[in-house]
Amino acid sequence: MLKFTPILLALIYGLVMYRFSVWRTQAELSARSTELRDPALQPMLDRMAAALELPRVRVHLYDIEPVNGLAAPDGRIFITNGFYRKFREGEVTAEEMASVIAHELGHVALGHARRRMIDFSGQNALRTAMAMVFARLLPGIGIWIANMLTTLLAARLSRGDEYEADEYASALLIKAGIGTAAQKSLFEKLESLTSARAGVMPAWLMSHPPTKDRIAAIERHEAGWGAS
Ligand SMILES: [Zn+2]
User: Global pTM?
Assistant: First the structure.
């Protein structure tokens, strides 16, 4: 029994840290966001709401600079101020903003948003818990194995999720009459933004698979659906 106590403690610690991360993330998002209301964007939201047979699609503006879109574990969708500014300044079109929102809606609809907490704020807790377990079982290399497993698990989870969210977004954009052209052009825009400002890759691209692969996957789906 005594032998298993550290493992039990590590598991409890991991769980508590996970719950705390969820709570802290939601609190941070709530404190720093307002509902995004923009007449120039509203027609896009209305078309997606109609396609989803929902009364409305609500989007929140998260007051941070990195260009990013997020789906919170409670199902709220956030667009960062940095991203929204690109739209206001005409660098990103309303259709392209809609494609990001559709992608984030996909993460919510497919249940990724909750699971993704493990990839982000929950990842450290998982790493710590596993390190405690493995350090005990395999002194020396245990921590190294825990790190590797956590990274591998997170990468696997998030990569699959991204392609699924892209596919959901394509289907929604087609149904809403917005089309997938904006979905692809946004990827390319974000990528060129990266090379223009050496080294500063938009967070939304960094956490996602390579642009070329994402566009190829979208085109594969379109061909399958007979949409292109
Ligand atoms: Zn995503």
Answer: 0.78
